[in-house]
Amino acid sequence: MTIDRTLRLGVNIDHVATIRNARGGDHPDTLRAAEIAAAAGADGITAHLREDRRHIGDRDIERLRQTIRLPLNLEMAATGEMTAIALRHRPHAACIVPESREERTTEGGLDAARQRAQLAPIVAELSAAGIRVSLFIEADRRQIDAAVALGAPVVELHTGTYCEAFHSGPDAFERERARIADAAHYGAGLGLEIHAGHGLTYDTVKPIAALAPIRELNIGHFLIGEAIFVGLDASIRGMRQRMDEARAALAADA
After folding, report:
1. Does 83 appear as a known binding residue?
2. Which Gene Ontology molecular function entries are recorded, alphabetically (predicted)?
């Protein structure tokens, strides 16, 4: 088996906007954060435009789309408003995520199997506009089958439960890693491009980065939090290094 050592890193800048919005104004600047991320080794920028605009705002998406050279991945709810915004700005990718106004952050994967009727026209419309559509789902074969049926070329596997299991002991952690590995191999075997993300840290990223079918990781909260102590450039470079080390070890073992 030939191992592709390339693993893309998408840096989510939502919580740069969270800090900015705590006081208003324009500091810290999301565009500056995106530029630092690019220089530090990011392969793309991810931003979630929530319906309540709690962090990223419409102006952020407009500026990012007009200015950054890296691909922009717009995370969005499956609504008419968000579909219209995506079609207006034409980001490189749109990742459809579940969204609840009551949640603090995204709490789980999209139920693509149950929501096929709602998702089908959105996936079709975005795809027809040349936007790479991704569905943020649990590492579950039923959800992967639904993504294939919907015609989405990409799935992003939710790693939140896996990351929480890190604190529950090695057995629980390994069970969650194995569940993600199974889903990644299954989805790749069906022709999907496999991404992963949510809650990944320096402690948890390597076992996921070492899964050969995974092509991209999207990481945000940890990087912005770590940046308080070491700076955003160093925070991202530290994650990039761990991802690359895991991928190199995978290739060496193949």
Report:
1. no
2. pyridoxine 5'-phosphate synthase activity
